[in-house]
Write a structure and sequence with these properties.
The chain is an all-alpha fold. Helix content is 75%, strand content 0%. The two termini are 12 Å apart.
Length: 313
């Protein structure tokens, strides 16, 4: 177990590149809303409120880690909590990749603990599935007032149903595997690996585990939605909690479906647009969006980078 994963090469370039591009994008957006007005809106969130918001987000990370441990135990790889936590957080370093695919880095780190790649990828796939279910559930809070987002939520539900069908129907997955076994080329080879992951994922999705994982997901992402509401409240924006949860969930879904790294650009644009449509001033909407993303996405990337660098020791 003396294998070392270095924060270098493509991982380092992705991390640095995403930080630089995002910083420039947020600067442009802030200037668009009026730098002075945005800065004034940010200053209204004091240190005490800011600390509470960060605490909520960290608690959400803890619940998502607990869900990760549930999946690893289901896959018969019960890791001690501290090494497992370091590995889990290190995966956040590459959150700013399309569809959070970079979090598959955890599979490389878990290899030290003799966890096969199909098993670690099954845990990651189960996480994404659970996240999608939680976001769709949160988005339903304000759907009646914003039916124009129904098509996107239906698309997410269709994707969710297809994934659940593949996980719950081993005969269907085996049939796909047999078909791919008769073909050559890179695509059939990739699909055979996907089939292995789907087979392993079944143990993560028994009814009892599914209920527990869904509750943990709803609580974890609900805390981030609550953090968004607290930011708006601290800035003096009169936005109901249900609407704040809807904005947060729809923005995250839009970011995920865009397949932009970390949802960058698309999630922020939807969040600002929905806030403005709800009567929030543009500078306040931009400030709230930037603060939320700093407290969620970029805090996660920072923690992940520290844990990934720590793995060199």
């Amino acid at each position: 177990m003396n294998q070392v994963v270095m924060l270098s090469g493509w991982r380092y370039r992705i991390l640095v590149g995403s930080v630089v591009c995002s910083a420039l994008a947020y600067l442009v957006v802030s200037l668009w809303g009026g730098w002075a007005a945005v800065s004034m809106a940010v200053s209204r969130v004091g240190w005490w409120e800011g600390g509470q918001i960060v605490g909520l987000v960290l608690l959400g990370y803890g619940l998502r880690f607990l869900r990760w441990q549930v999946y690893l135990n289901a896959l018969r790889h019960p890791l001690p909590w501290w090494p497992s936590l370091k590995i889990y957080l290190a995966g956040f370093a590459l959150t700013t990749t399309p569809g959070k695919a970079g979090e598959a880095l955890r599979g490389v780190l878990l290899k030290r603990w003799d966890v096969p790649y199909p098993h670690s990828f099954a845990a990651l796939f189960s996480e994404r599935l659970s996240d999608l279910l939680a976001m769709v559930a949160l988005a339903l809070f304000g759907l009646s007032a914003h039916p124009e987002w129904l098509s996107m939520i239906v698309a997410c539900l269709v994707l969710l149903a297809c994934c659940v069908l593949l996980v719950s129907r081993p005969a269907l997955v085996s049939a796909i595997d047999r078909q791919m076994g008769q073909r050559s080329g890179w695509l059939p080879r990739v699909l055979r690996h996907v089939v292995q992951v789907l087979h392993q994922s079944r143990s993560c999705h028994t009814p009892r585990r599914q209920i527990g994982a869904t509750l943990l997901s709803l609580l974890a992402w609900g805390l981030e939605a609550l953090a968004f509401y607290w930011i708006l409240d601290a800035m003096g924006s009169d936005v109901p909690l249900a609407f704040a949860m809807f904005i947060y969930a729809v923005s995250m879904l839009a970011g995920a479906l865009s397949f932009m790294p970390g949802g960058l650009g698309s999630a922020e644009a939807v969040m600002v647009a929905l806030l403005v449509s709800g009567g929030v001033a543009l500078p306040d909407a931009i400030a709230a969006t930037v603060l939320l993303r700093l407290a969620t996405l970029w805090m996660a990337v920072g923690l992940g980078a520290v844990m990934l660098a720590y793995s060199k020791q």
